[in-house]
Specification:
This protein has 255 residues and is α+β, with helices and mostly antiparallel strands. The chain has 6 helices and 13 strands.
């Protein structure tokens, strides 16, 4: 008797990141120097104590495919955080982030405003029915990303939007620049504006912090270790000098 073969699940038949373009069509897709440095700082300092590094992905300027009905539609966020996926895809670097392939939506989107993208990033443009939805529509209505952060480096304006039901609601932040911070209870860390020098450029940067203060970068951690080792060496030298002053050879002390 003939038995019909059931159709394969949509997840198996839809295109994967290997099938979809990873470059921005018609444009270079390369961020400017600020976008690159700011994204690096966000990734370096995004260290939630309750999330293992194997369960956290922090891409920047990476195509995000979000609609299985329109598989060629994508957005290219400046930086985003996905919780619950590995940093790599099956031991390979991702070409893009394909939501229907990964099965996990982003937790946080960060857009770094520029004059040409401000209106769309802030949801102030009307959608052209013949074109894909705007970033705001994708983040808010299609993916329902819990948090959306927008930073304008030209005015040092930091805005945080939290999903309330099916719509983003602006979070009221302090007016003082150095106090503009938002704590993410789910991550046990927060985002704020930090005045400091990163990669040789002193300015206001968007940076993660925890209960102890600003989360250190790799360079800062290495410098802290170097200073700690130097301090230990100096203490050991002072102890050796004191022992010699007392007629004791520090090199021949009993173990």
């Amino acid at each position: 008797m003939y038995e019909p073969i059931p159709p394969r699940p949509a997840r198996e038949t839809l295109p994967t990141m290997y099938d979809l373009p990873s470059e921005e069509i018609g444009e270079s897709g390369l961020p400017d120097e600020f976008h690159r440095l700011q994204a690096n700082l966000l990734s370096e300092t995004c260290q939630p104590p309750n999330i293992d590094t194997s369960e956290k992905f922090t891409p920047s300027d990476l195509n995000l495919y979000y609609d299985p009905r329109h598989t060629n539609w994508y957005k290219r966020p400046d930086w985003y955080l996905v919780v619950g996926v590995a940093p790599e895809w099956e031991n390979d670097l991702r070409w893009s982030y394909v939501v229907w392939q990964e099965g996990v939506r982003p937790f946080l989107m960060v857009e770094l405003l520029s004059p040409g993208t401000e209106a769309e990033d802030l949801g102030e443009t009307l959608r052209d029915a013949s074109k894909p939805p705007t970033k705001w529509e994708v983040y808010e209505r299609i993916l329902a990303v819990p948090y959306y952060v927008v930073y304008d480096r030209y005015t040092n304006n930091l805005r945080v939007f939290k999903l309330n039901g099916s719509r983003y609601q602006a979070v009221v932040l302090p007016e003082n620049l150095t106090e503009k911070r938002f704590w993410f209870e789910e991550l046990e860390i927060g985002l704020g504006l930090w005045q400091g020098n990163y990669q040789g450029f002193p300015r206001l940067w968007l940076r993660w912090y925890d209960h102890q203060g600003w989360i250190p970068t790799q360079t800062e951690r290495a410098e802290s270790e170097r200073q700690r080792a130097e301090s230990e060496r100096q203490r050991a030298e002072k102890l050796a000098e004191y022992l010699r002053s007392q007629g004791i050879d520090p090199d021949n002390l009993p173990i």
